[in-house]
Design a protein that fits this description.
- The chain has 10 helices and 12 strands.
- It is α/β, with parallel strands linked by helices.
- The radius of gyration is 25 Å and the shape is globular.
- The C terminus is likely disordered.
């Protein structure tokens, strides 16, 4: 039992700490900097002489040192080959957390547009089917077609088995699920989802192409979810920039789409520009699978983007709480991403902002939107009591 739990924990930690593959241009820049430093060191030590008969040997030695140092500082990214054993580890370690994060993100659409009734959903990089289950749980009575897209045949087989309740002879619990190994060419869906998938692609070019392809498949909402790490947030920002550019296509009015959540604006993200930059991430508590090694409650930390077709919602400019709310005796600390594209640390008091705003803020949590229009940033700060 302990060996199984250790395997699952090790693989889960590896996935959560996984970084993006290094781009060739960044690799070249790093190599040039290292080579410059090595050459300076050789010159200072008198080891590099232009007219020396052993110039070739010196150059070869420099190249070897550069390559060695480059390997030491470069993250070694490898694609994951999901065969049967690895698929089972993924199911045991990640399926419940991904389901919890996806339910939280789908809930953003459900709360703000309660009349939204999608008929079809597509999950790109569907894995064990977490997003299919989340969509069924959220809009199941309206959904008729589910399209699960995953390159791994083993993942698709496991997802099919889970939908049948673990037995091949049973009828599927979710009807209308279609499995694919590539994006179906003529299929367009109301909701298109990619959970923890873009970061598994081999480079920026492939990620951008995937985002553009998914947007073309989207009728209403494109939902992207990644780990709540710097790498995960970087992928979300990259996709956000791509989608804004793709939907604008040189047009400033009557745009094809807009950022629905979490951002209340479409300007540059203010969080990476802070003195102590943090990724824009959110948390969701959940009850994991009842395995003996699991804790009763776990927390999934994630970054996400919902991009929508059509007109902007009337409540689009409400500020988003992007860090834990700190409630004190007579005031509340609130860190907000605002509609003007700024990051604001607001200190809310009953005296300055009124009873309703004060009580509303105290009741809010990390990830909520604050349904108020705050004063300018310099007017929100008060001395702590």
């Amino acid at each position: 039992m302990s060996s199984i739990s250790d395997e699952i924990a090790g693989f889960t930690n590896y996935l959560l700490k996984r970084k993006l593959p290094v781009e060739d241009t960044a690799l070249q820049v790093s190599a040039m900097k290292i080579e410059e430093e090595v050459r300076k060191q050789f010159v200072s030590e008198g080891c590099l002489e232009e007219n020396s008969p052993s110039v070739r040997e010196q150059e070869k030695r420099i190249q070897n040192i550069v390559l060695k140092n480059l390997r030491n500082i470069t993250y070694c990214w490898r694609p994951l080959n999901y065969q049967d054993a690895l698929c089972r580890l993924y199911m045991a370690g990640r399926m419940d957390g991904i389901f919890a994060a996806t339910m939280r993100v789908f809930g953003e659409i459900e709360r703000r547009i309660p009349d939204f009734a999608p008929h079809s959903v597509m999950d790109f990089g569907s894995g064990t089917g977490s997003s299919i289950w989340a969509a069924w749980q959220t809009w199941g009575e309206n959904l008729h077609n589910y399209h699960a897209v995953d390159l791994s045949a083993s993942m698709n087989s496991l997802a099919k088995l889970l939908i049948k309740g673990g037995e091949e002879i049973k009828r599927p619990l979710i009807r209308g699920v279609h499995f694919h190994t590539v994006l179906p060419p003529k299929v367009h869906c109301d909701v298109v989802v990619a959970t923890y998938t873009l970061s598994e692609l081999p480079g920026m070019k492939e990620r951008v192409e995937a985002v553009c392809s998914l947007w073309k498949k989207t009728k209403c909402f494109l939902v992207l979810i990644e780990n709540g790490t710097r790498s995960g947030h970087d992928v979300i920002l990259e996709a956000r920039d791509t989608l804004i550019k793709e939907s604008r296509n040189g047009i400033t009015e009557n745009c094809d789409g807009y950022v629905f959540a979490p951002c209340p604006h479409e300007q540059q993200c203010p969080l990476p520009q802070q003195t102590k930059p943090l990724p824009c991430s959110f948390v969701q508590k959940y009850h994991p699978f009842p395995f003996p090694w699991n804790e009763p409650i776990k927390v999934e930390k994630f970054s996400f983007l919902i991009f929508s077709r059509g007109q902007k919602a009337v409540d689009q400019d409400w500020p988003r709480i992007v860090q834990p709310v700190l409630c004190r005796a007579r005031h509340v600390h609130c860190h907000l991403c605002c509609a003007d594209g700024t990051f604001q640390h607001a200190i809310i008091t009953r005296k300055k902002h009124g009873r309703d705003v004060y009580r509303t803020t105290r009741a809010c949590t990390w990830g909520d939107r604050l349904p108020v229009k705050l004063l300018p940033q310099e007017d929100n700060a008060v001395e702590e009591e």
